[in-house]
Specification:
single chain; 364 residues; ABC transporter involved in vitamin B12 uptake, BtuC
């Protein structure tokens, strides 16, 4: 008896993400949509908002967005695992206060900056230990450490501010790259961006990050060290946030306990707007970077048009809600279209195939 096999059945791909052409997998994504929207908003702002056009605007835009761009890099990986870190802005404030306080006590700026980054690493390690090894929910942990680190920052300096920083360091934080309109802070950002892109998208560690976000129990049984991965991600977030705090202090020439208050919400909004799923398991860094720039361009253009901060916050909030809702909406549409295709193009069942094969055997 001879059983024939349908060639179309053996040629069907099993991974849905590779069932479409490459151009469609690249263009039909949320990341590409955010990048396209960024370009539209940017060029529209240049043509419709006269004050927005010019290298000076780009320079100040990047200066203001640099801390958010930096912190968004590790935050992306954390959210992909299904966790969150709300204490990053408090870590920025604590590191800022440490730089100012240590400088007042005679430390040089580089020494104070290194000490602040070490403290930031310890803050991230504390978050990571409670989340990864104790098993506490990251939302509850980082809400607590948000208040803890901010309280420490305010407790060190009180209501005073340190402003007597050497001009060579404050000028360096605002220095341009040659004669261009790009500030020097873009260089460390690009270095960190390349590092996180390679880490997330081209290493086994990054594949483990996605696996944890999809199902941490399955990731554990497939060989991923879930606890260590989460712990390292929170440590990275603490270190990068502390570095952003050092830059923030020198950029504005002021160390205060309330520096960067509310920045964590802007970081999370940019990450989610950039295509990272709040449920974990999905995201890409190029979309996140575009999301940060998109929020920055919209805010800058609206401010130049004398729009109040309250209206800007409403617009950014709406973008965030739409970006979160779009994930569920697209999932529903995908399931619906897949079901229609399956019902419309269903093949004969197994009994019909066996009956056909049996008939062919008799004829032979």
């Amino acid at each position: 008896m001879t059983i024939t096999t349908d060639p179309a059945t053996t040629a069907t791909r099993t991974y849905a993400s590779y069932a479409k052409p490459l151009w469609q997998r690249v263009i039909a994504t949320r990341e590409f949509a955010v990048i396209a929207l960024l370009l539209i908003v940017f060029f529209y702002s240049r043509s419709e908002v006269p004050a927005f056009d010019g290298p000076l605007t780009v320079y100040y835009l990047l200066l203001d967005l640099a801390p958010i761009l930096l912190i968004a890099l590790p935050m992306t990986l954390i959210i992909i695992t299904g966790e969150i870190d709300l204490s990053v802005a408090s870590t920025v404030g604590l590191s800022s206060v440490l730089v100012g306080d240590l400088h007042q006590h005679g430390w040089s700026i580089p020494s104070a900056a290194i000490a602040a980054i070490v403290v930031g690493i310890l803050c991230g390690a504390f978050n990571g230990f409670l989340v990864a090894y104790v098993g506490l929910p990251s939302l509850a942990v980082t809400i607590g450490t948000l208040a803890l680190y901010r309280g420490l920052a305010v407790g060190i300096l009180g209501t005073t501010a340190v402003t007597d920083f050497p001009e060579k360091w404050t000028d360096l934080a605002k220095e341009r790259i040659g004669d261009s309109s790009y500030p020097v802070i873009i260089i460390p950002f690009l270095v960190l961006a390349i590092f996180f892109v390679l880490l997330l998208h081209f290493t086994s560690f990054g594949r483990g990050v996605f696996d944890i976000g999809l199902n941490d129990e399955a990731a554990h049984f497939s060989g991923v060290n879930v606890a260590r991965t989460k712990f390292l991600l929170f440590v990275m977030a603490g270190a990068v946030s502390a570095f952003a705090g050092v830059y923030f202090t020198l950029r504005f020439g002021s160390a205060r306990g309330d520096n960067a208050t509310g920045m964590e919400l802007r970081v999370i909004a940019a990450v989610l707007l950039g295509g990272v799923s709040i449920f974990g398991g999905r995201g890409a860094l190029h979309g996140v970077i575009a999301g940060v720039l998109l929020i920055g361009v919209i805010s800058s253009a609206l401010r130049l048009e004398d729009v109040t901060d309250n209206i800007i916050n409403i617009i950014i909030g709406l973008l965030l809600v739409i970006s979160v809702m779009s994930t569920s909406f697209l999932s529903v549409v995908t399931r619906a279209t897949t079901g229609i295709k399956k019902r419309g193009g269903s093949r004969p069942d197994e009994r019909q195939q066996l009956a056909s094969a049996h008939t062919e055997g008799k004829n032979e």
